[in-house]
Every structure is written in C-alpha cells, then in structure tokens.
Amino acid sequence: MRKVGSLTDEIFENYVGGHFFMRGPYGNGFDVDMFKGKEIVLVTGGSGLSPVHGVIDYFADHMNECKSLTVISGFKSPADILFKEDLKRWIADGMNFICTVDKAPEEGDYDGHVGLVTQYIPELPLKDFDNAIAVVVGPPMMIKFSIQELIKLGFDEEKIWLSESRKMCCGLGKCGHCRIGKVYVCQDGPVFKYTELRTLID
Ligand code: FES
Taking residues 171-198, what's their average pLDDT? Predict the structure, then answer.
C-alpha cells in the first residue's frame, strides 16, 4: 500500500497496527493461462510490480509451463525496491530478473542495475515473437516509452497487455472517476490489451 492521497494518508496515520475492512478487488486480472507456453516479458515501474507479483510467483514455481520469463522492474532508488526477499528467491530460482533504479545512490553499497527500464528492453533475449507476450505496468510515461521500445524490438501490438491504474471512487461502474472514453477501468479492467486502450482519449 502506498501513501498517495487522503484515504491512504488516513490509514498510514491512524490505522497502523489496527484493522480495517477493504472491499474488492473488482474488475479483471491476469489469468496465468494466457501466459502458458509463451516467452513472457514483464516490465514494471514502481508499485507496478505488485499486480504481476502473482504471475511471477506462479511461473517461478512452474517454469516448465512457459518458454521463458524475463522481468524488468524499475524503481526510483534502492530504498524503493519492493518485495526484496521475493526478488532474491526469484533470482536464485534462475529467473532473468533485471531490477534497476533511476539513479545510483551517492552513499551505500548498491551495486545493481542503474537506468530506466526502457534501456533494458532492446537487450531482451527473445527468439519467437509469434509466441511472445508482454505486460507493462507502471506510471503513464513509463508505459508509453516501454511500449514504444517493445514494438521497436518486434512485439506485435496485439500481444502487449497493460494494467491501468486510475483514481477509483465507487469501484462499481457508477461514479465515472475511472472512465477513459467508453471504458470503465474499475469494471472493464484494470487489465487491457494495448490495442484496446491506445485510441481512447483520457
Ligand atoms: S470508480 Fe466509479 S465508475 Fe469506476
């Protein structure tokens, strides 16, 4: 959970150690069946790693069910890296996991990757684009430039998926807060094919 607005401010300030009731999630999600037998590429920015955590965990335990799995995850700084323990486990299991930070810290002993996720996309070791699938989750600019790089590399636009993150209010398709054109992200998404969203005007 990130502290990003009035609701999460309240939770961080007044509910630490306490309990609260959360309803949801609503809408769709990532179905692991759509990744099976494929060369999978997941590109995430910041908390965008969270929505694909389950997919990574599944294939970490069932690597024989996909052709390959590469994850490129970007964070602002080493302190912002999520799921550090899982990450060690995924890498130890032999997954090609590139964890990168925007800028190396001036102090400390960080010796990992540095730079934006987009700079690692051209180096992806993909062999079979007909059988490849990519998922991009993160801030809008990161999504935009990551998709450009994936297409430049040879990805079919139909095989790129995104998870949209919007400010939700009702979560039930009533208030319109999450609407992009005719699409209600809370009900129709948040997972969409890139080709479903690319022409919609926000
Ligand atoms: S959050 Fe209210 S319509 Fe989607």
Answer: 92
HEC profile for 97-159? Answer: EEEEECCCCCCCCCCCEECCHHHHHHHCCCCCHHHEEEEEECCHHHHHHHHHHHHHHCCCHHH
Atom of ligand 1 nearest to the CA of 178: 4
21: confidence class by pLDDT, cuts 50, 70, 90: confident
Q: How far apart are CA 46 and CA 101, in angstroms?
A: 10
At 114-159, the pLDDT tens digits run: 999 999 999 998 888 899 999 999 998 999 999 999 999 999 999 9
> Ligand 1 within 6 A of 177 CB?
yes
Closest residue to atom 3 of ligand 1, CA basis: 173
Is the CB of residue 186 below 6 angstroms from any atom belonging to ligand 1?
yes
Domain of residue 127, residue span: 28-163
Same domain, residue pair 115 and 194: no
| Ligand 1 neighbour 113 (Cβ under 6 A) | no
Closest-lying ligand 1 atom to the alpha carbon of residue 170: 2
- Using the structure block, give the residue that is written with the tokens 């300030």: 13
Q: Is residue 180 within 6 Å of ligand 1 at its C-beta?
A: no
Question: Same structural domain for residues 89 and 49?
Answer: yes
C-alpha of residue 106 to centroid of ligand 1, in Å = 42
CATH number at residue 101: 3.40.50.80
